[in-house]
Amino acid sequence: MDTDQLIRSLAADNAHRAPRVGAVLAMALLVAAPFSILFFATFLGVRADVMSAMHNPFFDMKFAVTLSLAIPAIIISLHLSRPEALLRGWAWLLLLPVGLLAVAIGSEAMMAPAMPMTMRLMGKNSRICLVAIPAMSLPLLAGALFGLRHGAPSSPALAGALAGLVSAGLAATLYASHCTDDSPLFVATWYTLATALVTAIGALVGSKVLRF
Amino acid sequence: MFTAASVARCRLDHEFVIYPAPRNKLKERPNCLVRARVRGREDEWTGLMRSAMAGDDAAYHRLLKAITPVLRAAARRGLARAGQPPDQAEDIVQEILLAVHLKRHTWDSEAPFAPWLFAIGRNKLIDALRRRGKRVFVNIDDFAETLPGEVPQETASAAEVAAQLGTLPQRQRDVLQSVAVEAASIKDTAAKFSMSEGAVRVALHRGLAALTAKLRDH
C-alpha cells in the first residue's frame, strides 16, 4: 500500500472519535478499585480504634500524604500522555507528599513523642505494609496502565512509573486506615519502600506496554 | 587559496545548509524568512487539524498530504544520520501517519499542531532505528527544521504496511483494500461486501488499529 492510499484510508476513518485519556483512565481505575478494596476488606479491614484515631493528627496526616501523592501523580500522568509533554515544570508536584512528611516528622519530633525514635520508625506493621500496599496496588496499576495505553507518552517507562505512583498512592490510602502505626517516620520509611517497589514495577511494565 | 581554516569553515557552512541553525545571528535575514514560512505552514496545519477534529474529512486529508513530505524528509535525514539507507523512510512515514491518526485525541486543540506531530515523528523514528538494532542518534530538530523548499515528492515503496496487511482478518483486509487501494467510499464498500456502513467503519478502524499494533510489535 503506498502512502497516498494509506492517507485515503485514514481520512475515511476521520469520523471515528476516541474518548479522552482522562476518561479512559478514570474508568479503568474505577473498574480496578473493587479488586483492591476486596483485598482490603478480606485481609485487612479498617483498624478497630478508627474513631479515636481520627482525633490523632498523625493518623489524618497519613491520608494527606498518600492522597498528595496519588492526585498529583494522576495529573502528571495525564499530562505526559501527550507526546510533546515534558516532565519539566510538573515534577515539583511530586514534592508535595515529601514536604508534608517532612513537616509531620518535624512536628512529631517537637512534641515529646511517647516512644523512642527507632520504635516509631520500625512500628509493628512494617512487613504487612510492605506486602499489602504492593498487593493492593497491582489491580490499580493494571488499571492505570490500561488507561494510559490510550495516550501517547514519549517516555513509556516514565509514564509507567507515574502509573505506579498513582496506584501506590491509592493503595496506601486504603492501607493507612488499617495500619496502627501513625508515626510519620514509619510512613516515610515503609510506605516509601512499598511505593518505590510499585513504581519500579510500573516503569518496567510501562516501558513495554505504553509504547504506541 | 584553500588553507586548512577555510576548508574547515567551508565544511561548517555546508553543515549549515544541511542542518539550518536558526540561532545563527550572521544569517539572521534568510533565517527569518525561512522561519516565517515554517511558521505559516505550521499555523495552516493547526487550522486544518482543528477543522478535521470538527468533522471535516477533506481538511484531514489535506493535512495528512501536507505533512507527509515533511515527515519523509525528516525520516530520511534521521536514517542517513544513523548510517541507514533512505529506502526505509517510507515505512517510517507510514508508521508516523498511523500513530498520528490513532492518537489524535491526545492533541490539545488549543495547542499548535506541529510540536505534537514532531514529537510523534521523533518517537517513531527512534523506535524504527532501535528495531533495526542501530545506535540511536536522533537530532531533536530533525523534524522541526525541515524547510518548505526541501520536500522530496517521489514515494519510495513501503513494504511493512503492505506485508502486515496480509495478516489481518479477511474482512478488515477487504475493507482496507477497498477504501485505500480502490478508493471506494464507505458507502460503496458497504454495498460491495453487503455490509452496513457502520460495520464498514468499524472494520476500517479496527484494521488500522491492528495494523499499527502489528507494526509496533513485529
Topology diagram in text:
The complex is a heterodimer of chains A (212) and B (218).
Chain A (H helix, E strand, L loop, with lengths): L2 H10 L8 H24 L5 H4 L3 H23 L15 H16 L6 H6 L3 H23 L7 H21 L7 H26 L3
Helix pairs in contact in A: 2-7, 4-5, 4-8, 5-9, 7-8, 7-9, 8-9
Chain B lengths: L3 H15 L9 H26 L3 H25 L7 H14 L10 H19 L28 H6 L4 H12 L4 H7 L4 H21 L1
Helix pairs in contact in B: 2-3, 3-4, 3-5, 4-5, 4-9, 7-9, 8-9
Tell me what you see in this structure:
The complex is a heterodimer of chains A (212) and B (218). With 212 residues, chain A is an all-alpha fold. Chain A has one domain (19-209). Chain A has helices spanning 3-12, 21-44, 50-53, 57-79, 95-110, 117-122, 126-148, 156-176, 184-209. In chain A, helix 5 runs antiparallel to helix 9 (184-209). The radius of gyration of chain A is 20 Å and the shape is elongated. The model of chain A has no long low-confidence stretch (mean pLDDT 94). Residues 1-22 of chain B have low confidence and may be disordered. Chain B is mainly alpha-helical and 218 residues long. Chain B has two domains: 27-156, no CATH class; 159-218, Arc Repressor Mutant, subunit A, CATH 1.10.10. In chain B, helix 4 crosses helix 9 and helix 8 packs across helix 9. Chain A binds chain B through residues 1-21, 81-84, 150-152, 154, 211-212, and chain B through 52, 55, 57-58, 60-61, 64-65, 68, 90, 93-94, 97-99, 101-108, 111, 115-116, 118-120, 122-123, 127, 155, 157-158, 161-162, 165, 176, 179-181, 183, 185-186, 201, 204-205, 208, 216.
